[in-house]
Write a structure and sequence with these properties.
Order of helices and strands: EEEEEEEEHHEHHEHHHHHH
Shape: globular
Structural class: alpha+beta
Strand content: 5-15%
Number of domains: 2
Number of helices: 10
Number of strands: 10
């Protein structure tokens, strides 16, 4: 089965994406998928099967694993126990190349990240040793999370992490040109979502006709480009509403919308509430 290309959205003014899930708040299922970001996953307990690059690897009593970019995989968590807890940390190559790599003190961390391209499954005792540090991320602010994450990477890099699983990169499952096109599209939208973005513009940028682009995008992401763009923009709008008490019109324009009615419909469709729900009443 061909994996769906997943877009990982990092919040405004953040270097990485950290999500925590309890038994009743599961990670949104994406089934068989890939993404160009690195992913570190901690599952506190329960039993399951890791489906990675055509391999099925069973685990018991939770798992801690680290995988590199563009490795096909399914979701890792489980609902066996009511006290289960899952942490998913994702970051792009720019976080490594522009930030971590410039510090010579992070030599061990950089080796750990390099090894993740083969998928690292840590020993059970390592998962248990650092479990509380993963679980503590839930109550931290963004700065504390970043510092704690770097500390976790350093600690993991000093361990004998033992199991490296050979994994096929997407070059064997999705044409490398398609991967590069999708990465370009997501990066372009991330940088230009406040501007006018048309299907014709994006298609021209990646060398396709509009019809070919629409088929290409739907085939690789399981959604239309318009659906993706509206979902992306409304998530950004939600971040703006949460960060400060901006007016609806200010947020609307910041996120590339010009029609208040259309903005309201799309925001409610993808975020579950109308924009005015997030405006503080004096």
């Amino acid at each position: 089965m061909k994996p769906i290309f997943e877009n990982i959205e990092v919040a405004i003014n953040s270097s990485l994406k950290i999500q925590t899930f309890t038994h009743g708040e599961s990670c949104e299922l994406t089934n068989w998928h890939i993404h160009p970001e690195y992913e570190l996953v901690y599952v506190k307990n329960g039993n399951g099967t890791l489906q990675i690059s055509g391999k099925n690897i069973p685990y018991t009593d939770g798992v801690l694993l680290f995988l590199g970019p563009n490795i096909p995989h399914a979701d890792f968590g489980n609902k066996d126990n009511s006290d289960n807890f899952e942490v998913v940390i994702q970051f792009g190559k720019e976080f490594l190349e522009d930030k971590l790599v410039v510090f010579p003190e992070f030599k061990g961390i950089n080796k750990l990240i390099k090894d993740s391209k083969h998928v690292i499954i840590f020993k059970k005792k390592i998962k248990n040793r650092y479990g509380q540090r993963f679980e503590a991320l839930q109550k931290m602010d963004d700065t504390q999370r970043l510092l704690s994450f770097i500390g976790i990477l350093h600690s993991l890099s000093t361990t004998n992490y033992n199991k490296l699983i050979a994994a096929e990169n997407t070059i064997n499952t999705i044409k490398s040109q398609d991967v590069m096109r999708l990465e370009y599209i997501f990066e372009y939208v991330n940088k230009n979502y406040a501007d006018k973005i048309s299907i014709g513009l994006i298609a021209n940028l990646i060398g396709l006709t509009s019809n070919s682009f629409c088929r290409f995008f739907k085939h690789n992401t399981n959604q239309t480009f318009v659906q993706f763009l509206n979902q992306f923009r409304t998530k950004k709008a939600l971040e703006f509403f949460i960060q400060n008490n901006s007016s609806v019109s200010e947020v609307m324009y910041k996120c590339g919308y010009n029609d208040p009615s259309y903005f309201t419909r799309q925001f409610k469709k993808y975020q579950g509430n109308v924009p005015s729900f997030y405006i503080t009443k004096d």
